[in-house]
Amino acid sequence: MTEKRTVRVAAVQIAPDLDSADGTVGRVCQAIAEAAAKGAALVVFPETFVPYYPYFSFVRPPVLAGADHLTLYERAVVVPGPVTDAVAAAARSHGVVVVLGVNERDHGSLYNTQLVFDADGSLILQRRKITPTYHERMIWGQGDGTGLTVVDSAVGRIGALACWEHYNPLARYALMAQHEEIHVAQFPGSLVGQIFADQIEVTIRHHALESGCFVVNATGWLTEAQIAAITADASLQNALRGGCMTAIVSPEGKHVVPPLTSGEGILIADLDMGLITKRKRMMDSVGHYARPELLSLRLDNRPAMPMTTAIPAAIPPAAPLEQEHTDHDDARFPIPGEPAHQRVAVLRHPAG
Q1: What is the span of the domain harbouring residue 173?
Q2: Residue 325 falls within a domain, yes or no?
Q3: pTM exceeds 0.85, yes or no
Q4: CATH code where residue 28 lies
Q5: What does the pLDDT read at residue 310?
Q6: What pLDDT score was predicted for residue 2?
Q7: Is 308 part of any domain?
Q8: Partner residues linked to 12 by β-bridges
Q9: What's the pLDDT at 149?
Q10: Which class for 66: exposed (0-12), middle (13-18), buried (19 or more C-beta within 10 A)?
Q11: pLDDT by residue (tens digit) across 244-282?
């Protein structure tokens, strides 16, 4: 029989602190406490919420964005570090699962990173957006296949993608094939206008239907004062309005509660996990509705490393040469398949 289980979740739409990374983290911890007080077991925040989404890169040409980019480096999150410690402590204190988007700094590069903390405070997923979009490519590096992973948590199996990663059907299918129960989507919000909000809604509702899972999506919010601080050009300010669609969607593609499309707030909804089986009984895209003998996905989930090293086996001492070798002597040429360290080159000085 299908297990009767209900999970209460929260999707947070609030503004960051554009002047202080610590200020944004404080807002995160405050929202976790507020959602937990309302009974939420999962709390989801917007894309790269800490310290903030790089809105400047959308309205300012790269030649003028250097100072803002460097400030983002200074305020970015190192994993592990003080920010992850603070959020982990909040998750553990309130016994909730937290999904937080951050700008992660790894030495000389920034990444759009999604962090999943389990209810005991442990960091169970650290994934980087695999392809930054348009202006974002000047800000972030690319993630790898290690992040296309569904993890077990206190509320169920969680998968996550950021923003336009949802337009990569193979990335979505990689998570679907791992039987995600709750899909966490994160978008920046306050961007592009109403058309962006409409596109987000279509995208997350379709994924819920296709995957047969719940989708919890959080978008960010900018105040009018923050928009003016990002750009004083009135002709560009409209590009930083709208585009908000904080929503919770069922496996049947329906909004569980009305979405939040403007202002700050926290959506709370109870997820009837039995709806997953109800949907998949009709259409399981990675089960009885799949045709893996015709169509299948290969995922390279190895970490992308800029350098790998190996400690070679000890090199045996070379045997003394007893006679002069000819140019065609086999000893001068590698034997196919022979380990590199066993290949001995014969060097001769020219006759003098």
Answers
A1: 6-282
A2: no
A3: yes
A4: 3.60.110.10
A5: 86
A6: 53
A7: no
A8: 266
A9: 98
A10: exposed
A11: 999 999 999 999 999 999 999 999 999 999 999 999 999
d(CA 167, CA 304): 22
The tokens describing 194, both together, are 């109403």
Residue 172, domain member (yes or no): yes
- 255 inside domain: yes
Catalytic residues: 47, 129, 163
For the chain, the domain total comes to 1
Please say whether the beta carbons of 248 and 215 come within 8 A: yes
40 in Cβ contact with 10 (< 8 Å)? yes
Q: What is the pLDDT of residues 71-115, one digit of tens each?
A: 999 999 999 999 999 999 999 999 999 999 999 999 999 999 999
Alpha carbon distance 209, 212 (integer Å): 5
Q: What residues of the chain score a pLDDT lower than 70?
A: 1-3, 313-352
> In the structure encoding, which two tokens stand for residue 15, read together?
């503004």
Give me the residue label for tokens 């007893």: 322
pLDDT at 336: 44
Helix/strand/coil (H, E, C) string of the chain?
CCCCCEEEEEEEECCCCCCCHHHHHHHHHHHHHHHHHCCCCEEECCCCCECCCCCHHHHCCHHHCHHHHHHHHHHCECCCCHHHHHHHHHHHHHCCEEEEEEEEEECCEEEEEEEEECCCCCEEEEEECCCCCHHHHHCCCCCCHHHCCCEEECCEEEEEEEHHHHHCHHHHHHHHCCCCCEEEEEECCCCCCHHHHHHHHHHHHHHHHHHCCEEEEEECCCCHHHHHHHCCCHHHHHHHCCCCCEEEECCCCCECCCCECCCCEEEEEEEECHHHHHHHHHCCCCCCCCCCCCCCCCCCCCCCCCCCCCCCCCCCCCCCCCCCCCCCCHHHCCCCCCCHHHCCCCCCCCCC
